[in-house]
Write the structure tokens for this entry.
Amino acid sequence: MTPPRPVPRFGHGSRVPGWDDSVDLSKPPATTPDPATTPVPADLRREIDAAMAKYPDRRSAAIPALHAAQAVHGYCSPLAIDQVAAVMGVTPAYLTSVATFYDMLETDPRPKHDDVYVCTNISCSLLGADELFDAMVAAAAGDAHVHVSSFECLGACDIAPMASVNGEYVGPLTTEDPAQIIEDLRAGRPVLADKQIRYRLSVDPGANPEGPHEFTTPDHRRRTDRAGVGDLEAVTDRLGPSAPVERPPQPPTDGTDR
Ligand code: FES
């Protein structure tokens, strides 16, 4: 019997490279920045407030709030983190722990670029993600503005195999699509407009009240019908729209994360 192949591991014993920097314990613990002395751009404040309004606990808005700050500052700089912390009423340390954990949040400055994450986790992998990733790398070869990375489950397994292009989820993809993605990026137009998840029907009309619920293109109808999603209209009719969710008031902040 052939012995099992050893699992490749990094020097620290894990199968993944790891990315966290060690904590500098010599620094004094930071407190919540004073909103009165921390100027925050009005648009950014509005976005953070809107994100917090969606959750019973304001800390649940950390990721969208940091994303918004990253879009303004280019990365999650100390200033960006201070601004988010001031609006959310949490410590910069709390937000730094989030920003350093998630691959899509940058804590170091990088030149402006396009980010393509190809999901290579199980659902996408079973449907050809490895070939798709290779095709994406080949299509972006020589273009320093496009960063292609593999990612472990982007949470959209229903459109596998899929990718996130500058945050826009597209799928199901074929190995023909990467060339079009690069072409769309270079032309500055929406990427694979026919395959964006935002235009797929939702079973819950309340989940996306502002989004389109119509089939937008013949290709969209063909793909959703093939997946049996065309029946969702009937399901929606039967269930009716979802009731608005009552949100409890946000707890007052006391300058700590607890
Ligand atoms: S496995 Fe690819 S989105 Fe989940």
User: Anything to note?
Assistant: Residues 119, 121-124, 153-157, 160, 162 surround FE2/S2 (inorganic) cluster (CB under 6 Å).
